[in-house]
Amino acid sequence: MGNISLARLDEKMDPESASSLSDAEKAVVRARDLTQQLLTFAKGGAPIRTAVDLPGLVREVAAFAVRGSQSRCLFDIPGDLWPADSTRADRPGRPEHRDQRHQAMSTGGTIDIACKMTWSAPNSPMCSRPAAM
Fold first, then answer.
1. How far is CA 21 from the centre of its chain?
2. Cα(69)–Cα(7) distance, rounded to whole angstroms?
3. Which of the 8 DSSP states describes residue 132?
4. 65-96 per-position pLDDT tens digit
5. Backbone phi and psi for residue 113, each to the nearest 5 degrees, phi listed first
6. Residue 16: which region, alpha, beta or left (left: phi > 0; alpha: psi -120 to 50)?
7. How far is residue 46's CA from residue 51's CA, in Å, rounded to a whole number?
8. pTM to 2 decimal places
9. Which candidate, 68, 83, 98, 102, has a CA 20 to 30 Å from the CA of 111?
10. Beta bridge mates, 46
């Protein structure tokens, strides 16, 4: 990660390269976190659960999915959306098969993404309370 950080210090870097390096830094952090999680499992430990900022995660994954295409995302995300209580393994990685999606919408388009609060039944495996931040 040190080399990526050093490369980002280049003031003459074009915005697309800077964005790619930023994505690479995020991927390194995810890999480090996943490695830590796997080491915890290997030692017989319980999964490490943390609160996840859903609006940020949704926007990040969607932005990656449409990068390099003529498509754009419109978001409908309420400001009072609770964070999710999850492990790193529960969280989505980068979308796969981007080329196929770009071919399906080669002329571009709009992808509507909406999030909302839902309530689950008391016996549901879904979390029915807000996660602690």
1. 16
2. 25
3. P
4. 787 788 889 999 998 888 887 765 555 555 55
5. -125, 125
6. alpha
7. 16
8. 0.54
9. 83
10. none
